[in-house]
Design goal:
This is Inverse autotransporter beta-domain domain-containing protein. InterPro entries: IAT_beta, IAT_beta_sf, PbH1, Pectin_lyas_fold, Pectin_lyase_fold/virulence. It comes from hydrothermal vent metagenome. A twelve-stranded antiparallel barrel has the order 5-6-7-8-9-10-11-16-17-18-19-20. It is elongated and about 105 Å long. It is mainly beta and about 625 residues long. The protein contains three helices and 51 strands.
Length: about 625
Amino acid sequence: MKCIFSQLCCGLLSLVTLFSLSGKLQAEDIPNSEGVVRTINLSDESANHNDGVAHANEDNDGVAHAEPVPHSSPSYVETRVDDIFRRTPQRALRYAHGPRWDAYTAWSFKPGNERVMGDGQVMVPLWQNGTSMLFADVRGQIDDTGAYEGNWGLGFRQIRNDNWILGVYGFFDRRKTRNDNYFSQATFGIEALTVEWEARANVYIPDSAPKAVGGSALGPRALIFNGGVIIRQGGGIIEQALYGVDAEVGKLFYEWGPDVELRGFLSVFHFNTQNRGFANISGARGRAELRMYDLNFLGEGSRLNIGAELQWDEVRNTQATAMLRVQIPLGRKQSNHTRLQRRMLDRIVRDVDIVSTQKSLATSDEEATDVLTGRSFGNVTVVDASTPDIPTTVLTNAVAGAGGPSTVIISDRKGQINTTASIVMGQFQNIIGSGYSQAVVGAVTGTNAVLVVPGSRPNISAPGLNAVILADDTTVRGLGFIASSNSIYSAVAVNRVVVDQNTFTGATVTGSGIRLLTGAFSGNITGNVATGIGGDGIWVNGFDAAGTFNGILGGRFSGNSAISNGLDGIHIGSFSAGTLIFNNISNQNGLNGYFATNAGGTATNNTGFGNGSGNNTLP
């Protein structure tokens, strides 16, 4: 590993040495016996060059040599070797193989009517020979909407025929949009530059996968909608990065000497995608830039650009942006380039963003049914403590008013519900508390989803009353009961009933959290918690598996807890064949942890401790 690292370091050092030597003047080819280099004065018309670049004669060996002429000739000036790297009014031929281009960093600030942007850039030459340059271009951008982007590019530029530059480049782009989505893109471009004119074209190829916006639920989800429970598929908003092309032409309009320029640009662009439903984006952009070179306070090779840009398309409308950009060379001072040569260091112009757009998805709805019972939820009514006539009008008459299956959702948003009458349920009625999660399935497609009722568990207080009276085919889920005689009650046998994830506290000395007084109960009693009740935590006269849910045999008593109640924690008169009683807890109750007769059912992993009469498990 150390050997490889040493070889890499030596290789890099060799490259740096090679680049530095390639830029040095081959002094042995030029100086005279006095140690003086003779160079051509640009004002000498006899040089027969009118391209604005100083030239020396070339021999057949292809190497530029200083022309030997008499000292008295007014067409030549003397420049000592020590002065080669100083800026002079003459455009001296400083290097035997042409000019040298050095790395730079640039920073921009762009306030606009839609957003405020800032970006940073580093350009580093990787290889050059005086007329050509391969370079790396790395950029980062951020704006005040929370979006940011990085661009990693390679470019190649070459001076052609001493009067124009040909360039090609490619970038890998990565962007986080204001919607917190990430997109990647490849960008390719070609450009042509002269001192006065320039033109370029770019192609943008993004990844094609759309992304959800703002956590939009694009999969199936259960909703309470229009008085019922439905499963909705589709919908939401998605964002898509677009393929695109643009083309730009620019011109030098005015100049104040060689170091101050006013340039103008006009471009057109088009972006689209193969995915349907997204708007195409086509428009035009105009830009003006005042460019200043070699500023004294920033150093030789520096630049200051001040500009303004106006853009329009049918999707994003009019966007106006101002621009301030500072470019500073890195390392040694840059050589005294001609105006064409310094364009080799111009910033590559391309779209600053991965362009994306959004669309809303169509939706499809179907009725949802209860996964466990297989029954419809029917008409849905939401009530809370502010609902008039609770419970006599709304709760007890919900089924009658609906004319069939119905669901009452009790919300905690207005606080505790105090009732002075029992809630008498009818067949096929459901009562669900806010905060409860309910597994549902599509009645047509069989699509699975979860209904999450917004809010927290509601509390119902019914002092001295049987708070909820069950009937066949009813469910009570996700409620909290305080200080009732019996919170959930039935004086007769009820079948195919679900009592799930309710809490019971503070019932009277003769009361229970659940009390099913006579007959055999069939259904599921799961996940309930009874604490601090004067009587039994849960009291069931008989438990069997005669009823079925959606074709599945019922008879499950599991996951219940009875803690610190006055009498028995869990009392089951008998449980017959087919019933499953498991994973229950009964601790520190006044009498028995469990009081039950096993009549053929299965009991496993039921635990307890600290109960007054013992019986810390089921037989």
